[in-house]
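User: I'm preparing a small set of examples for a lab meeting where we compare how different chains pack in three dimensions. I only have the primary sequence for this one, and I'd like the structure in token form so I can line it up with the others. Please keep the answer compact; I'll paste it straight into my notes.
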Amino acid sequence: MTNFTGLRRFGAGLIVASSLVIAGHSALAQELSEEHIAAARAAISSLKSTDQFDAVIPTAAEQLKTELIRSNADLQEVISTTIDEEALKIVPRRSDLEKEAAQIYAKAFTKEELEAIAGFYSSGPGKKLIDNGPLVTRELIKSAEIWSSGIARDLAQNVNKALQEKIGQRPKVTDEKP
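Assistant: Understood. Below is the structure token output for the 178-residue chain.
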């Protein structure tokens, strides 16, 4: 359940952040100060994106366990133990992902914009958007697909009717040869 919640929050953050990239376009060329990077980290934290970052290593470890145990079932215990030991050694590298994310956000948004983003996502409506955004997005996509199918069907029917009125019934081609 935690991974699913993290995915929802991460997805909501990505959706909103990607829609705001255009507004922060002017920030791309500026020098990134430590305060700017700190504001980016705060924005990322408020988006709960780091919840998803936490799942990267355990997910990779579980996938590797499954793959190796599938082909070496007799070594299940040693594989599991070894992967767990090696995964723990990699945990310090998780901060690299957070640093990279902060750089990306800092390049896309000004320090002031990042502070506003962090403020919004720390507020009640921002938290609600994080929690409900992915569900709303799925529903919107589903609704748009249904609407689009209906429009395409109606357009085809209307064009067919209009063409019949303009040019009449066309004779059907038969496969018979003279």
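A couple of notes for your slides: The chain has seven helices and no strands. The chain has one domain: 2-137.

User: Perfect, thanks.
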